[in-house]
Write a structure and sequence with these properties.
The chain has 186 residues and is an alpha/beta fold. The chain has one domain (8-184): 5'-nuclease (Rossmann fold, 3-Layer(aba) Sandwich). The protein has eight helices and four strands; from the N terminus they run E-H-H-E-H-H-H-H-E-H-E-H. It has helices at residues 14-24, 34-45, 55-62, 69-82, 116-125, 135-143, 164-171, 178-184; strands spanning 8-12, 49-52, 151-153, 175-176. The protein has a four-stranded parallel sheet, with helices on both faces. Helix 1 (14-24) crosses helix 4 (69-82). The longest helix is centred in the middle third of the chain and has 14 residues, at 69-82. Residues 101-109 have low confidence and may be disordered.
């Protein structure tokens, strides 16, 4: 598969924010992740790639201990990437949400649409092992036409990546690793 290039809109998950934050702090990746981090850095620096992040990433960062060094590294990277084009949310958070237990001006509780897309994605991903995770929300956000996302980029091979063919078939969303996307770019 070759992407139609012009500007490619790439939606990052939280794990990639961690890899970037570690790279920017000069922390070398473990050997098996070096190609992933190298590809990720090349993607971020690529002129034809527009990086997008969402509130879901900030929520995952917020679930880390407030004083943890990982949270302190990740949050500034998230905020810098978000300054471009934030992703519009395609599902609300209820007051009883198991995901949101802290307040931020970045995280809204409601949204203008319905939770129909999220419900469909969860109905597929939860039974295949994606139980306590934000991945269904990432895919539902990618499905929202207003976001015009070309690729959901992740290295989460244990859950979402291994179901990418079914995600493409059921929901129309392309899931890639950084290495795969870099191979598609000029």
């Amino acid at each position: 598969m070759r992407l139609n290039l012009g500007s490619v809109r790439v939606y990052f998950d939280n794990m990639l924010i961690t890899y970037l934050a570690n790279y920017e702090e000069g922390r070398p990746p473990v050997d098996h992740l070096r190609p992933t981090v190298d590809a990720l850095v090349a993607i971020v620096q690529h002129d034809d790639v527009e990086i997008l992040v969402s509130e879901e990433t900030l929520i995952e960062i917020g679930r880390m201990d407030k004083d943890s060094s990982k949270r302190m590294r990740n949050e500034p990277v998230y905020r810098r990437l978000k300054a471009g084009n934030p992703v519009h949310r395609n599902a609300g958070f209820g007051w009883s949400s198991k995901y949101v237990g802290w307040w931020s001006e970045d995280v809204g509780w409601d949204h203008d649409g319905t939770n129909e897309d999220l419900d469909r994605v969860e109905a597929y991903l939860v039974p295949v092992g994606n139980v306590d995770d934000m991945d269904p929300r990432y895919i539902a956000n990618a499905m929202l036409a207003d976001n015009a996302i070309d690729v959901f980029l992740t290295y989460d091979k244990k859950t979402i990546w291994r179901h990418r063919a079914e995600i493409k078939e059921r929901f129309g969303e392309t899931v890639m690793t950084p290495e795969e996307l870099l191979q598609q770019l000029p």
